[in-house]
Amino acid sequence: MDPASKLGVDIFKNDQEAHIIICQEICRTCELKPCLRICPAGLYSVNKETGEVLIEYTGCLECGSCRVACPFGALAWSYPRGGFGVQYRYG
Amino acid sequence: MERIEAVVVGGGLAGLTCAYCLAQEGIQVMVLERGEHPGSKNVSGGRIYLRPLRSYLPELWEAAPLERQVTKEVITMLGQGSSLTMQFTSGKFRESPGHSYTVLRSRLDKWLGDRVVEKGGFVIPQRQVTDLMREDGRIAGVVAEGEEIRADVVIAADGALSLIAEQAGLRGPLAPRHAAVALKEVIRLAPEVIEERFGLAPGEGAAQLFFGSVTPGLFGGGFLYTNRDTLSLGLVLGIDALVKGKPAAESHQIFEAFKGREEIARLIKDGELVEYSAHLIPEGGYRPLPTPYGDGIVVVGDAAGLALNMGITVRGMEFAIASGYMAAQTVKKAKEKGDFSASSLVYYQALLRESFVLKDMETFRHSLEVLENPRITGLYPEWACKVFEQLFWIGEGPKQRISATVWKGARQGMLNLQALKDLLMLRRI
Fold it and tell me: Which DSSP helix (H) or strand (E) runs through B365?
């Protein structure tokens, strides 16, 4: 099962505003790109044409592992605003 | 402008326990929770050990929404295409009050939030704390999405990442080596099916841990806990190991490979996925622990790095609850003295040191070094499975004596300098 279909069973209250902002200048110099590997929801990808790192912030499970894994501090990372984001019913 | 005696950032077990105790003492307390309700952002494996907590809040745990009383402990070493399982049960696990229970945090924390309100505390959901307020060099309150809330003391209970403790200058960001990420699925199955599959009486539960081929050479392992009508299936991966691991694999792919193992697949068969979650686990052990207090601030639970992976038992919730309780005792004493400075709140650390929390963290301070040894999760489980395969296998030709097979296996796997060193290291946990 791919992560996108798993996220389909979760409840999200999506904000218009992204809570993770990527600094592309830093990412361009990063070869390892740990964010691509670490994210349990598989939300990070690289745009093949522009080389930019992209994130689908609306499926974020708010674990924070990308913030920990990023070696260069390229992520301006905050939690979604109060009331927004994933709402766990089991936890 | 509002002013309150104590403001708690985060409605998890640490923050809510602290608020519950403060409210019980008649101290004004407000919990700010960013989710829809306490628990809606919280994830744990999860199982809780209640014995260490009975002396703190004995009245509370009898009525808590717990899932199943764990009566069966199972450890599985996964080889490639083979596995070795050890199962343990004891009458002691069935005694009442119980030793350990499986829990689902969204339910448990919501319930505890309601108890806080019952005692007269305020629980404000959907409110994120973004900043700390400072006055004369001390923490003087919080800013919750633009609104300033002044308080005598701030209790940072905002979880493993603890952006608040970081802002207070009490800790830096978590290092990849000191954190793991847990991926978890909650899978629904009828209670009778769960009991039949795991060989349990009604209400009884099993806790199964997996290590070995599931995370080849990586620091980590799997877990499977039985809840009332669901299973919690999860995988824990050390962030540093995953990032550097070769060949490169994505965390969710490793999880899928784990789920696909025959040993797992038959246990979750026909189950319905009802939730997918992820959570950060501080794995730092004792040494990188931040100072859990400052002028006008106390840090509790995961935010203070109070979690411990002891290999066959993984603990965090008891530490969270106990630290919340001790933070409340500290705040109560500070209020009596009218002094919320660091020199008064240092009492919290003294309480932690006297209790099982820092004592256990001290005793098991080397567990991380042992667990991140790639041979512990790679070579040895594989080796053990191979030896057993040779023992049980009857091939076409003549079979060796059992003693010869074991001896040969021991020579290959255990009788070398590296293995002896690893064995000596095991003494440290």
Answer: none
| ∠ CA B424-B76-A7, rounded to 5° | 120
CA dihedral A69, A70, A73, A77 (to 10 degrees): -70
pTM: 0.94
- Tokens representing A4 are 């996108």
Is 80 exceeded by the pLDDT of residue B396? yes
This model of the complex carries an ipTM of 0.97
As a whole number of angstroms, the distance between CA B198 and CA B192 comes to 10
The token pair at A26 is: 């830093």
Q: Closest-CA residue in chain B for A77?
A: B163
How confident is residue B427, by pLDDT bands cut at 50, 70 and 90? confident
Domain range summary for chain A, segments of one domain joined by +: 19-81
Residue of B106, B182, B252 lying closest to A42 (CB–CB): B252
- Domain spanning A19-81: which CATH class is it, in words? alpha beta
User: Which one of B143, B254, B274, B277 would you mutate to disrupt binding with A, by most A Cβ within 10 Å of its Cβ?
Assistant: B277
The answer to whether A68 contacts B273, with C-beta atoms less than 8 Å apart, is no
Q: How far apart are CA B347 and CA B339, in angstroms?
A: 12
Q: Looking at the complex, report in whole angstroms how far the Cα of residue B107 sits from the nearest Cα belonging to chain A.
A: 7
- In chain A, whose CA is at the least distance from the CA of B259? A1
Each residue's pLDDT tens digit, B247-306: 788 999 999 999 999 999 999 999 999 999 999 998 865 566 789 999 999 999 999 999
Closest B-chain CA to A85: B35
pLDDT of B287 reads 60
pLDDT tens column, B336-375: 999 999 999 999 999 999 999 999 888 887 777 777 777 7
| Chains A–B, number of C-beta pairs less than 8 Å apart | 152
Q: What percent of chain A has pLDDT over 70?
A: 100
Residue ranges per structural domain of chain B: 2-66+103-172+290-354, 177-282, 374-426
CATH number of B2-66+103-172+290-354: 3.50.50.60
Instruction: Identify the sign of the CA torsion B85, B91, B93, B94.
Output: positive
Q: How far is B326 from chain A (nearest CA, A)?
A: 25
